[in-house]
Amino acid sequence: MNFIRFAAFAAGLIAINAFAAEAAGAPGATAADLAKSCAACHGADGNSTATIYPRLAGQYHDYLAQALREYRSGKRQNAIMAGFAKTLSDADIDKLSRYFAAMPSKLDDLSHHEQGD
User: To which H or E segment does residue 34 belong?
Assistant: First the structure.
């Protein structure tokens, strides 16, 4: 069973990386074009339903940009994200981070909770 999961995961990575290489770094690519490769893990609307993938929608753009730069440089370690980030220019990172920051978020905060005694 583990081999099947691994094979499916590996096939998915190959497909995603091929798609990312095609979309990312393309001259004149829009943020929506660049974000297509993000949807596989982070959701089409940036609100991942899988707990292992963070929600991108509604995050601060400077946080998202910094994270992508750190994946690209290797400061943050994740093989999947490093593969994507290495294809992105600084302009692409700025487009993507602002794109996801502007999206409606399903992030939860404590603003609607009352502090009890």
Answer: helix 31-35
Residue 29 lies in a domain: yes
Residue 41 lies in a domain: yes
**pTM recorded for the entire structure:** 0.70
> Tell me: the pLDDT tens digits for 44-98?
999 999 999 999 999 999 999 999 999 999 999 999 999 999 999 999 999 999 9
**CB proximity list for 15: less than 8 A, separation 6 or greater:** none
Domain-embedded: residue 115: no
Give how many domains the chain has, as a whole number.
1
Which residues constitute the domain of residue 42?
2-101
**47-67 core/surface letters (b: 16 or more CB in 10 A; e: else):** bbeeeeeebbbbbebeebbeb
The answer to whether residue 37 sits within a structural domain is yes
Distances (CA, A) of 68 to 3, 81, 115: 31, 8, 35
